[in-house]
């Protein structure tokens, strides 16, 4: 035991001595620093090594080497930094002499990847990509501001108290009868669509002056005011022919990818002349469990203009997003969830200093609740199926319009409050009252989708196969327009016909259901130095839950789409490769009618037959006949747009030029077409009784009358709109010039857009034409092209300098609209046929042009109406600057639009001298971003 004890003591003593010797050992750390791109050795690079609170510095020698000697054992942090290269930090355990090699990525390469404008995608079709850096310098208030970056786009002052719709590749001002382009632009947030088919939130026809008119988004697509940009990481706007995966669209698709993963706390505060915006966000990561959470919230308060505080718009959006990843032997499983809430408030009230009608107000509340989920299985590379994905989204909205208005009829106005057809004795509106109407809308949209992607080879051809199906359900659960029929918001004083609307409950409208399936194959073939890619796809869809009376019932419709790309062999110019890719595409894109188009409200025609107003209220009497017309157009079909495009892409020495020619023809766009119906009524003669001898309220039968019949109009949804888009888009992006870190981006477009009617039009003869004592006895049928050509050519030159050593980013844009033009389509004014009051159709002849009654149907136009009117150059210069502090923790930005303008006066086609000086004023704003 004693011997064992001495041995153990000796071993312990030896261990202590050895440990002490180890603790006192000194080591040497050596290394080299090279350029990652070409492995060249870098001299003059600062190397710092830190342990605890002690830091030592050195620099690499001419051979790129560095060394630290006499270092104690333990953990060290090594930091490599240079203004020309990206900073690199590593953690090292030093328990022996070590040699480490660092490969740095050029800062200029990083700078060359920073874009402050939209860049052209390298996908199969024309698309613009806008990333976070571009959005940060642009300083947007809503998604609308991003359109400035597209080819053909231009900066505009925000208009946040009106509906903001998107129209791709389009110029001119399409009226409310030609909104198919905006309605047919699809918005997808993290792969889930924003569906607007159940939006019926309108006050049209219910008020004398409609305060909701500029804000009305029914049948106009997505209101871009409601989309905050602070949650967005990247946007891809597909201007060309999208994959068949995306349907129920005619124009293009907007793909929004939101931030995800670990991120610092970020806050943004923006102010300009129209609005104030506040946002905050954070990304959390539990890397051990592969679980990520992102939270964002923003608040926007905007006014119609800085001097008007009585018309404003407020927006609150918040989002909670999670992502969980399971890493298994058979593949990775990703589960993403998001919960979103948005609230928009449009508010308009009367200035008490300008009006006695202190009750007048307009408030619109929009609450949106979203839940979206996506489960994705990522399979091994050697599997036939690469990914399998299931996703779904539920969106519920609470829309409410609340209008109050003081109503004061100037003359005796008949009160019509019947909802049944036939003849009715009615009363009169009181002299003054407060009208109050609520429009209650509750759209519910459900979307589910299954998608899979497979990969396989056929000989030397690599193929990616996409197969999927999706289903959407849209229903409005609201009560619709709610008001007291005895106190209407719309009165037609002195008119023979009253308003044609009555309240209807939205929840009585059937749900809209659409089922679709698609298949698409992308084949890539490499032969020599050539690379050929061909993407072919077919989408089939049908509307469910439709009455058999509809033309669309039980029909399966198809959208074929093809995109091709040919990458030519590289040409060596000055020892640099010139890469050329040419491509083209053909596609059919379709949009189904919305709920409002499939099930329009009933049309009420109330003809006032008798309006006998006596000084004694007890003797007053009135009589109307009410006709109710079902405006449903069972023949309505889809809006189908045929798109074609050709493109060329040139890349050389970091510079890139893309040119795209496109042609789009939409012959079946949606609009409201006028229809006429001949109705019978009686014209009672007020003077046929003696007012002085009345002792009681007179009966209607006491009055004599004359039978009458005339045409009355109503509107019905139809495929009567035509839109033809033609033009080319171009974008040149230079490499970022070293030394000054500056990039030049030149983009623009030539657009020519034709808006027209695609169906015969009907027009009633002027009420000034009296036929045998009767009016509106004839209809003219015309095939004239009612519409307008619009044209524009623009160029935007953006010069941006990115100076990371100073933390400054500067971008100056020169936005030149070379010209705009418009021309009304020629109309002969002569009808092909006319219809008499009995419904008989007659050919319109030369003799009819001199007929005392029918000649009024032949409309004489002045030739000046069809001249092409052209407006010359309009140049704006804009400036955007951002400055970062404390390693980008604080970024202060400002913008100034129209700091200089050039808009020369000109003489128009009619000889009038147009003065344009002083029409443009600068628009300023600034913001601060904080990351911590």
Description:
This is Carboxypeptidase-like regulatory domain-containing protein. The protein is mostly beta strands. The protein folds into 2 domains: 22-105, Immunoglobulins (Immunoglobulin-like), CATH 2.60.40.10; 185-931, Beta Barrel (Maltoporin, Chain A), CATH 2.40.170. It is built from 5 helices and 51 strands. The strands form 8 sheets. The chain has a 22-stranded antiparallel β-barrel. Strands 8-9-12-13-10-11 form a 6-stranded mixed beta sheet. A 4-stranded antiparallel beta sheet has the order 3-2-5-6. It is elongated, with a radius of gyration of 35 Å.
Q: What fraction of residues sit in β-strands?
A: over 45%
Strand segment tally: 51
Q: What is the CATH topology classification name of the largest domain?
A: Maltoporin, Chain A
CATH superfamily of the largest domain: TonB-dependent receptor, beta-barrel domain
Contiguous low-pLDDT stretches (5 residues minimum) are 1-24
At CATH level 2, the architecture of the largest domain is Beta Barrel
Q: What percent of residues adopt helix (DSSP H or I)? A: under 10%
**End-to-end separation:** 65 Å
Question: How would you state the average pLDDT, rounded?
Answer: 89
List the total number of helices.
5
Number of domains: 2
Signal peptide: 1-23
Protein name: Carboxypeptidase-like regulatory domain-containing protein
Organism: Terrimonas rubra
Domain TonB-dependent receptor plug: 122-254
């Amino acid at each position: 035991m004693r011997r064992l004890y001495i041995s153990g003591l000796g071993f312990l003593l030896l261990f202590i001595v050895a440990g002490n010797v180890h603790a006192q050992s000194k080591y040497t750390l050596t290394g080299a620093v090279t350029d990652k791109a070409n492995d060249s050795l870098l001299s003059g690079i600062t190397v710092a090594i830190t342990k605890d609170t002690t830091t030592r510095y050195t620099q690499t020698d001419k051979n790129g080497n560095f060394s630290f000697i006499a270092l104690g054992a333990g953990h060290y942090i090594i930091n490599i930094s240079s203004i020309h290269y990206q900073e690199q930090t590593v953690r090292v355990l030093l328990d022996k002499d070590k040699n480490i090699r660092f490969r740095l990525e050029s800062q200029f390469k990083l700078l060359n990847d920073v874009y402050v404008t939209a860049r052209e995608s390298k996908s199969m079709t024309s698309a613009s990509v806008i990333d976070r850096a571009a959005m940060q310098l642009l300083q947007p208030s809503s998604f609308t501001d991003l359109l400035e970056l597209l080819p053909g786009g231009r900066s505009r002052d925000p208009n946040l108290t009106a509906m903001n719709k998107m129209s791709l590749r389009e110029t001119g001002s399409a009226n409310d009868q030609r909104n198919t382009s905006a309605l047919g632009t699809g918005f997808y947030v993290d792969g889930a669509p924003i569906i607007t088919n159940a939006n019926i939130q309108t006050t049209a026809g219910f008020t004398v002056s409609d305060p909701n008119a500029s804000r009305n988004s029914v049948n106009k697509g997505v209101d871009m005011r409601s989309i905050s940009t602070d949650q967005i990481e990247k946007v891809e706007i597909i201007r060309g022919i999208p994959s068949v995966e995306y349907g129920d669209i005619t124009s293009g698709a907007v793909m929004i990818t939101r931030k995800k993963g670990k991120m610092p706390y970020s806050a943004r505060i923006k102010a300009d002349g129209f609005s104030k915006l506040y946002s905050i966000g954070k990304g959390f990561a539990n890397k051990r469990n592969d679980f990520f959470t992102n939270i964002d919230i923003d608040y926007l308060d905007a006014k119609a203009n800085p001097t008007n505080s009585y018309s404003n718009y407020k927006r609150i959006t918040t989002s909670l997003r999670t992502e969980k990843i399971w890493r298994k032997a058979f593949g990775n499983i990703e589960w993403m969830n998001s919960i979103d809430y948005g609230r928009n408030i449009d508010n308009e009230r009367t200035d008490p200093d300008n009006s006695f009608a202190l009750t007048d107000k307009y408030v619109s509340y929009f609450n949106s609740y979203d839940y979206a989920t996506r489960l994705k299985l990522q399979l091994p590379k050697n599997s036939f199926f690469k990914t399998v994905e299931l996703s779904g989204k539920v969106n519920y909205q609470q829309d409410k319009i609340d209008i109050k208005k003081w109503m004061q009829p100037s003359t005796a106005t008949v009160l019509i409050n019947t909802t049944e057809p036939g003849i009715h004795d009615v009363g009169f509106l009181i002299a003054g009252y407060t009208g109050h109407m609520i429009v209650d809308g509750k759209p519910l949209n459900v979307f589910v989708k299954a998608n899979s992607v497979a990969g396989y080879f056929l000989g030397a051809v690599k193929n990616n196969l996409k197969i999927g199906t999706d289903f959407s359900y849209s229903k409005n659960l609201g009560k619709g327009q709610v008001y007291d029929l005895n106190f209407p918001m719309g009165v037609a004083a002195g008119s023979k016909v009253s308003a044609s609307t009555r309240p209807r409950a939205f929840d009585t409208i059937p749900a809209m259901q659409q089922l679709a399936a698609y298949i698409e194959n992308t084949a890539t073939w490499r032969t020599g130095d050539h690379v050929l890619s061909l993407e072919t796809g077919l989408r089939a869809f049908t509307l469910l839950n439709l009455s058999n009376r509809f033309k669309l019932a039980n029909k399966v419709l198809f959208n074929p789409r093809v995109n091709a790309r040919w990458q030519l062999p590289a040409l060596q110019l000055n020892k640099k490769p010139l890469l050329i890719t040419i491509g083209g595409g053909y596609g059919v894109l379709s949009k189904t009618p919305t709920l409002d188009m499939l099930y329009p409200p009933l049309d009420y025609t109330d003809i006032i037959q008798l309006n006998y107003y006596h000084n004694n209220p007890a003797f007053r009497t009135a009589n109307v006949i009410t006709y109710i017309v079902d405006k449903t157009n069972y023949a309505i079909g889809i809006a189908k747009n045929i798109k074609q495009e050709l493109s060329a892409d040139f890349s050389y020495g970091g510079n890139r030029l893309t040119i795209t020619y496109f042609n789009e023809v939409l012959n079946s766009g949606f609009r409201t077409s006028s229809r006429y119906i001949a109705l019978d009524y009686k014209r009672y003669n007020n003077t046929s009784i003696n007012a002085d001898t009345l002792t009681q309220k007179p009966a209607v039968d006491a009055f004599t009358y004359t039978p009458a019949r005339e045409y009355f109009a109503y509107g019905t949804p139809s495929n009567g709109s035509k839109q033809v888009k033609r033009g080319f888009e171009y974008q040149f992006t230079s490499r970022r010039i070293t030394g000054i870190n500056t990039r030049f981006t030149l983009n623009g477009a030539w657009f020519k857009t034709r808006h027209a009617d695609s169906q015969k039009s009907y027009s009633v003869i002027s009420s000034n034409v009296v036929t045998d004592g009767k009016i509106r006895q004839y209809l003219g049928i015309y095939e004239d092209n009612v519409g307008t050509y619009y044209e524009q050519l623009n160029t935007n030159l953006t010069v941006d300098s990115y100076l990371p050593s100073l933390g400054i980013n500067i971008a100056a844009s020169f936005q030149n609209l070379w010209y705009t033009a418009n021309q009304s389509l020629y109309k002969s004014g002569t009808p092909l046929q006319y219809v008499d009051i009995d419904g008989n159709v007659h050919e319109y002849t030369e003799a009819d042009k001199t007929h005392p009654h029918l000649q009024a149907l032949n409309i004489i136009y002045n030739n000046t109406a069809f001249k092409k009117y052209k407006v010359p150059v309009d140049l704006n210069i804009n400036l955007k600057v951002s400055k970062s502090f404390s390693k980008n923790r604080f970024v202060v930005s400002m913008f100034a639009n129209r700091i200089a303008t050039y808009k020369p006066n000109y003489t128009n086609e009619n000889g009038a001298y147009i003065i344009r000086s002083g029409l443009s004023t600068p628009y300023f704003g600034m913001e601060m971003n904080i990351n911590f």
